[in-house]
Amino acid sequence: MKIFIFVSMFCHSKEKNYTPKLLITNFLIRIMGNNFIRRRWDDFRKGHTVYLIFTLSFVNFILIFQRLLIERVPILDEIFPSLWLFAIVFVIAYIPIAILLGRWHRRTQVRIETHLQLMNNPFMARNFRILLDMIDGKASKEEIENYRKKLRSIEKKDFSE
């Protein structure tokens, strides 16, 4: 019954005969209209790939490297007698190398990636076309006003949801 009352809050029909099917349908349409599910899916993907899988793959690499190389090569086994010692040395060496690679990527590759993304983005192409048309005086007042409305709606968005 609580779900029925909660779902009925999202139904804006003038009819008072709400069937459960109508209420659930309206509720789902409202959620999908607000991109709720898409945002949660995006949050899941980012949390999964950036944090969880990164951490799991990092630990997995250390464990596999220890088991397959360090324990089987006697000289390395003497240098790193415990997993913790190897993990500490590995992290101390790995972090500066990763920072250097990340810096190289930011300085050389990000420019290329951004350029490719912009060249394949129809929204940005339309924005630049309208800007050029405005400069040349070819854009209609309606196009300019629609462009302004779209930009205002983007500026007002709260991306913290």
Low-pLDDT regions: 1-11
Distance between the termini: 28 Å
SS-based class: mainly alpha
Work out the helix count: 7
Could you tell me the strand content as a percent range?
A: under 5%
Q: What is the CA-based Rg, rounded? A: 27 Å
Shape descriptor: flat
Estimate the mean pLDDT confidence: 79
- How many β-strands, per DSSP? 0
Kindly report the oligomeric state of this protein. Answer: single chain
Order of helices and strands: HHHHHHH
Query: Roughly what percent helix?
Result: over 70%
Describe the main β-sheet briefly. Answer: none
Describe the structure.
By secondary structure, the protein is an all-alpha fold. The chain has a domain at 2-33. Helix content is 81%, strand content 0%. It has seven helices and no strands. The chain is flat. The two termini are 28 Å apart. Residues 1-11 have low confidence and may be disordered.
What is the topological layout?
Blueprint: H1 2-8, H2 20-33, H3 36-70, H4 74-79, H5 83-119, H6 122-136, H7 141-156
Key terms:
flat; 7 helices; about 160 residues; mainly alpha
Short characterization:
The chain has 161 residues and is mainly alpha-helical. Helix content is 81%, strand content 0%. The chain has a domain at 2-33.
